[in-house]
Amino acid sequence: MPRRIWLTLFICMGAAATAPGADEAERSRPGWLLPLPEVDADPKIPALKEVVGHAWGEDISSHAEIARYLRALADAAPDRARLVPYGRTIERRELSQLIVTSPANLARLDAIRADNLRLADPRGTTPEEAARLAAEVPAIVLMAYGVHGDEISSGDAAILTAYHLLADRRPETRGLLDKVVVIIDPMQNPDGRDRFVQFHRGNRGVEPDAEPAAAERVQPWATGRVNHYLFDMNRDWFLQTQEETRARVAAYLRWQPHVTIDSHEMGTNAAHYYFDPPIEPILELITPKQRDWFARFARRHGARFDGFGFGYTTREHYDAFYPGYGSTWPVLHGSIGILWEQPSARGLVVDREDGTTLHYHDGVRHHYVSSLSTVETAAAHAKELVADFASYRASAVATGREGPVRDYLLLPGATPARAARLADLLVKNGIEVRRTTAPVKLKAKEGLDDAEKEWTAPAGSYHVPVAQPAARLVRSLLDPRFDMGEEVRKRQLDRKARRLGDEIYDVTAWSLPTVFYVRSLAVSGPSEIAGEPAPAPRSIGRVVGPDRAKVGYLVPAEDDAAMHLLARMLRLGLRAHVFDQPTRLGGVAYAKGTLLFRVADNPDRLHDEIRRAADEHGLAVHATDTGLVDEGAGLGGFDVTWVKPPKVAMIVDRPTSTAAGHTWYLFDQVWRHPLARIPAGSFSDLDLSRYNVLILPDGRYPGPLGEGAAQRIKDWVRAGGTLILVKGAAAWAAEKPVGLLASRVIKKPIPPPEAPAGPDKEKDKDKDQEKKEETPDAVPGAFFRASAYDDHFVTFGSPREVVPLVNTDLILAPLAANDGRNLVNFAARDRLLAGGFCWPTTLDLMAGKPLVLYQEAGKGHVVAFADDPNFRAMVPATQRFFLNAVFFGPGH
């Protein structure tokens, strides 16, 4: 059928289904347009109520109900639907995709996928083969719903869309499936969804309550938005810290879809509905052709919504700058990634501030219509979509041959395990990485330095060629910085000057070499780099020296994987020591923070366990048969301290931020060390003497900690405890009545109003001169330069110059010399900002201020962080400061 006829047909379908006579009562009925009235339903395909007991939009379906319904659909239409599990959540709920297409396509589904992957790599096909494949492969549309578990309407819209595509016997719908393969992921966050559904059903009555503050709507601390570890998984696509994300990315790369939908909900009182194109800033690597596709899909969405009288907006609020969103990461692989946002009822019904009432079924209806519109658009332009995808992947390869950067080299340096983990992360993102087999001399720019210099990259460096189909994703993750654009910056500064909210949606810096503190070389010219496929990180682990050490094993300090090894060995009941001063043994220099496992202190299994740990963490561990050092601290001397095993408690629940989950995740999944999570309301009952480390994560304290909490903590620290204060907790500790931290919070002065004219001038003079202050504008995720004081256990293993990712509005005054030590300090104003964007007044205030502070208190320690070092589990180097405080504090 000609494209013009398809377009006319489907716009007319939307207009016809409007039912012009539908009054407000009809439009508020749960079943209105669910499904569309023109659907010629096949009775063999069960409706939702037949399977789970409630109809479309009548209730919020749980994970089990959605999973049961997907299975029923797949069983009822085995010639057109296939249910494919692709992973499990932390709480062991299954992640699945329902693949819907025509019988002919389903019969050759594996061949379609294989052909599309061939199309995705133009280096393996001739132009003639690519043209043939592009003509034969149907458009592949991935529609992903509910990465935020309490954004509820999309899950039911997903299964309604699946029903529509399978049940509708009209040629119009069956014809769609000839041209597309639709992959429906109805719940990207089942754990969060079930957390919300259980809470909501447990708090509502016979009739739903439309009161915005009703108990059925106001969620507990761990909301359904986040997953088990309280992560926002819509920020995790390239970081892949979470099990669900890793499974989702692997499933994506198995298909390389041409269109990817990322379906969300926004605030109850937000706009009627949003769909892309996004607002600026848009990452410069997103191509003009992709931007044109955003607009083309939007035109079809708009026509559909206009036909039903639905309100909507576009090019507002939501940008496409950060590459970790579910709508931007796919774009950098060549997909057309599109974001949808529906106002959320956070239940079945809610009264909005504008006097209207929003029902759950409204959200289901809007997402359902958007889903149909997407499938229609993809079907109407299937061949063009596939051809443009192939062209995108070919142009990506060309950018590596002709563009400003041809290759990246990641140098292992003193942190080979960290470099290996970075290389492995790139591979998991669908990026090709090789390891050099010989030294390479070349000209390159290093990291944040704009000057090109001569370099020799050693053998064993990680080579990331840009001439690959994922070239734009390569650059988005490895380039040192991206600019939002002068116009965007000016607009944000102007809004701040007028005391309006900014439009910056997420962090403005994220370069992975900077995040990992791995030296990266960007090569602009052609070069010959010999290499082999990059091995798995653990393959580089080894024990250097004798097979069975007579004296002990030393683990160099520089790589934070040493701390992961330490946690493992302590968990196994082995004893460890740490060097407080450098030493040299057998001609090898060992820095402060080097770990020592003495043979005499440990059982015979130490030898086998140290090898297993070296292998697992990719570390070079040095075995020694002598304790006689060349110079420096002796293995049995005064500057080697026993690592007293930390017994760690952390406050959770209100008043803490849910970002505490990031720390929980690291303890649970990365460091593998026990962590007692204590609800703040139970703190007064906690026997603090059972723990030697207490973490107060970011939050608004004191909250429910109870009367006398500060004094209890103070007495515990003086008795030998290590207190770790993060962000809001540090601000609370610095308050004079609390007195846990000898600092103070620095505020931003509010400029006085313009002096009045006329007779009231003198009367208002004193009032105008009153000093007023407010919280500084938060740093929107930028790289700052800082220096680390190197003679302290908190900074063991750190370089002197560091570039942390800063995402805070807290500025702490430096500690006086007689009060403590400022361990990590921001650079001077002219050097401070290394990447990303920050407000000028915030830069002025933060210059020279501490990021990490330390003070002694009796026998114990207080370590304070002005920003969360474990934010998104993203930055290994700042996590190292935190780990050092946890593991070395109790023994010092």
Largest sheet: 9 strands, mixed
Strand arrangement in the largest pleated sheet: 29-28-30-31-41-40-38-35-36
Low-confidence stretches: 1-21
Task: Tally the helices.
Answer: 26
Shape field? globular
Rounded radius of gyration (Å): 29 Å
The number of E-state strands comes to 41
Provide the β-strand percentage band. Answer: 15-25%
Helical fraction equals 25-40%
Q: In angstroms, what separates the terminal alpha carbons?
A: 77 Å
**Mean pLDDT metric:** 94
The structure class reads: alpha+beta
Compact overview of the structure:
By secondary structure, this protein is α+β, with helices and mostly antiparallel strands.
Fill in the keyword field for this structure.
single chain, 892 residues, globular, 7-stranded mixed sheet, alpha+beta, disordered N terminus
Description:
There is one protein chain. The strands form nine sheets. This protein has a nine-stranded mixed sheet with strand order 29-28-30-31-41-40-38-35-36, sandwiched between helices. It has a seven-stranded mixed sheet with strand order 1-2-4-3-5-9-6, sandwiched between helices. A seven-stranded antiparallel sheet has the order 15-14-17-12-16-13-18. Helix content is 33%, strand content 20%. The longest helix has 21 residues, at 288-308. It starts with a helix and ends with a helix. It has 26 helices and 41 strands. Helix 4 runs parallel beside helix 8 (153-167), helix 7 packs antiparallel against helix 14 and helix 9 crosses helix 13 (360-380). It has 892 residues and is of the alpha+beta class. The model is unreliable at 1-21 (pLDDT under 50).
